[in-house]
Amino acid sequence: MIVGVPSEVKSGENRVALTPQAVEALKENGHRIIVEKDAGVASGFTNEDYKRAGAEIEASHEKIFESELIVKVKEVLPKEYGLLKEGTIIMAYLHFTEGLLGSKRAFAEALIKAKVVAFSYDTVQANGLTPLLAPMSEIAGHNGVIMGAYHLQTHLGGEGVMIGRMAGCRPAEVVIVGGGSVGTGAAKAAVGLGANVTVLDVNVRRLNELNEIFDGKVTTLVSDRHNVEESVKKADLVVNGVFFNPLRTRKRIVTKEMVGKMKPGSVIVDIGCDPDGPIETCQETHHDHPTFTCDGVVHYCVPNVPGAVPRTASQALSNAILPYVMDVANKGWVKAVSENAALRTGLNIASGSFVHREGASCQKMEYHDLEELLKTA
After folding, report:
1. Any bridge partners for residue 353, and if so which?
2. Which terminus of the chain, N or C, has fewer Cβ atoms within 10 Å?
3. Rounded to whole angstroms, how far apart are CA atoms 196 and 170?
4. What are phi and psi of 268, to 5 degrees?
């Protein structure tokens, strides 16, 4: 199969989907890999690195989209819609089951109109876990704490508190909303820096797991209004690791009223960055202008935090997705999803239809049963 790896065109996105090591593995399985010129440079991988791994280097972004299988990091952007061709297989983070319904619906319509086959890393599930989302979520949580610590500096509008322990000084208070992969990554970073860490989650079983993981070094609380309000009020840094699903009730976790009671110069890092999401004062920002201040609180709301550490993030992403990419390349998408239950959960669109029930519901679009489609494919 011809596998194309394009440069990412989304603002601030510096990752590349496949490393030279992954390219070499695909090449050894008989596939032809075409990498866009300089696609991996920001991640520390040169064109020569890819050539040595067996890839061809192509200067034209348009030519990459002529590949049978396109392996990306982020979704196809509107300026790329015209490059989509019927039957092309695309693997990327599509996020149809999360917010921003308007822009996501237009994107879904473009994929359906073009009759591409679209896999979304974020919906792949194996043994109840999301193995292709988890590594990026953990990086986002970890780096979110680093960014939060940085913006606590006075010259950036912060209150001037260092996240770390100094003799005779009270350590910073870090509050993490959500105990999943993002929250775990954030807690690891915050504990490592010496902060007092509180994690809030609605799942008591998960809180018990976090108690064991951190050996009692974090405070775990049930995420109810009282606990959230009291925790946020004392926080120097709040990290949100909760992603809202349009099918579920969008009840604010951190309200504007709560933000107004926070200490002047404290910082909120919202990994989800959904304007209709858990933090009422959130507005999406970008790496070039990452913060704004609301009610005296600095907000860092960059949606692709891992894009700021592309060398680490690209390696972690490539390691995670390679077995799935290899399966599709070796077998073709029909046989691959027929034999691989986890991969099947990642298939969102095929044959001009949504075949992922939750994605279709979130985008308010028609759903077609995948099993019925596979019988005729």
Report:
1. 350
2. C
3. 9
4. -115, 130
DSSP code for 201: E
Beta bridge partners of 300: 269, 291
User: Among the listed ranges 48-62, 88-102, 112-126, which one has the minimum average pLDDT value?
Assistant: 88-102
Burial label for 371, CB within 10 Å (0-12, 13-18, 19+), is exposed
Nearest to 175 by CA among 259, 72, 55: 259
Running DSSP on this structure, what letter comes out for residue 263? P
Distance CA 237, CA 186 (A): 11
Supply 123's token pair: 């919906």
Q: What is the pLDDT of residues 192-245, one digit of tens each?
A: 999 999 999 999 999 999 999 999 999 999 999 999 999 999 999 999 999 876
- Determine which one of 95, 151, 299, 356 is catalytic: 95
> CA 1, CA 11: separation in Å to the nearest integer?
30
Whether residue 95 lies in the annotated active site: yes
**Would you say how long the chain is, in residues?**
377
Q: Which two tokens stand for residue 266?
A: 């404290």
356 noted as active-site residue: no
**120-to-30, 172, 229, 325 alpha-carbon distances in Å:** 24, 38, 35, 12
Domains (range + CATH), the chain: 2-130+309-376 (3.40.50.720), 134-303 (3.40.50.720)
φ and ψ of 198, to 5 deg: -120, 130
122, 201, 270, 274: which one is catalytic? 274
